Amino acid sequence: MKLEKIFIEKSLPALIQCVKDASIEIMNVYQSNDFGQSNKSDGSPITLADQKANEVILNCLQSISPDISIISEETFDDNTLKNIDNMYWLVDPLDGTKEFINKTDEFTVNIALINNEEAIFGIVAAPVSKKIWHGSTFDIENEQDSMSNCLRIVMSKSHKNDNDKLFLEFLDQRNINFEIIEKGSSLKLCSLADNEADIYPRFGPTSEWDIAAAHAILVSQGGSVISIPNETELSYSKQSSILNPYFIAFRNEATKSEFLPVLRDFFKKLV
User: Fold this and answer.
1) Per the domain annotation, does 142 fall within a domain?
2) Same domain, 119 and 9
3) Under a CB-based contact definition with an 8 Å cutoff, are residues 118 and 234 in contact?
4) Backbone dihedral angles phi then psi of residue 136, each to the nearest 5 degrees
5) Coil, helix or strand for 249?
6) Is residue 97 included in any domain, yes or no?
7) With contact defined as beta carbons under 8 Å apart, do 137 and 216 qualify?
8) Which residue range is the domain that position 230 belongs to?
9) Same domain for 79 and 36?
10) What is the model's pTM?
11) How many domains does the chain have?
12) Residues 218 and 111 in one domain
């Protein structure tokens, strides 16, 4: 048994309590009339809930593992990428701030453990539903249930673009029967892990902290997140940028094997 697996198993109860405590702080702000909203230097919104949840999580992780560094969306700057350790926590204290502001209920707390460019553990909490997902790459389930006649595609509720439209037109042209499921934040990847959707295509910008925690959870359920165009498992710790390449997430290996070859022609059309 790897030392990392032992560490994760030992730390899990504290991590579950951590995301519960962060969720409480988020819901206290969500149910108030003052979000304390402002904009960061890149124009993205930040609220009092982001800040309060971030404080809870940083304190928790420092208590659990004082020797493991932490990269959080709310404390990140360009210098962070210059000194990335092999192992570190990657945190988005409130994933889906726009969903939070718009009162859609579809936002999450994300904590991932990265080791050697791989998300080896993730925990995601949905503060409104109080549901918590967690999983690690040390315990992978490989149940390959059969595909339905309709491809279930989960897509962003707030971040659609021209590439998404082209993708759906591409499927139509190939007579692929599909339905669209809209979700916010990490709930998209979690819906694949829960067998509520089959694929999640993302042809727009995301950051590593948006994806890592739910990525590990999906992998623990036999799924994958494939970067485009090189068709390899999405990796982390890029020193050039915190942004992810385009990707498609698959619920399981059977779905990937069936649809990845079909989609290669589409990858050439991406802008």
Assistant:
1) no
2) yes
3) no
4) -135, 160
5) strand
6) yes
7) yes
8) 151-267
9) yes
10) 0.95
11) 2
12) no
pLDDT of residue 1: 52
* Per-10-residue mean pLDDT, the chain, length 271: 87 98 98 89 87 98 97 89 89 95 96 97 98 94 72 87 93 96 96 97 95 98 95 92 95 95 88 58
**CA 120/CA 20 separation, integer angstroms:** 21
Tokens coding 44: 């993205």
Tokens representing 162 are 């021209």
Which residues does 193 contact at the CB level (< 8 Å), separation at least 6? 133, 135, 214, 217, 218, 220, 221, 223, 251
**Among all chains, which residue has been given the structure tokens 């694929």?**
199
Place of tokens 């940028």: 241
- CA-to-CA distance for 78 and 96, rounded, in angstroms? 22
Distances (CA, A) of 94 to 64, 78, 188, 203: 20, 20, 15, 22
143 within domain boundaries: no
Kindly report the length of the chain.
271
* Residues 117 and 155 occupy one common structural domain: no
Find out whether 199 and 151 touch, Cβ atoms under 8 Å. Answer: yes
Question: How far apart are alpha carbons 36 and 247 in whole angstroms?
Answer: 33
The answer on 160 and 93 residing in a single domain is: no
* pLDDT for res 159: 72
Residues 105, 121: contact at Cβ < 8 Å?
Answer: no
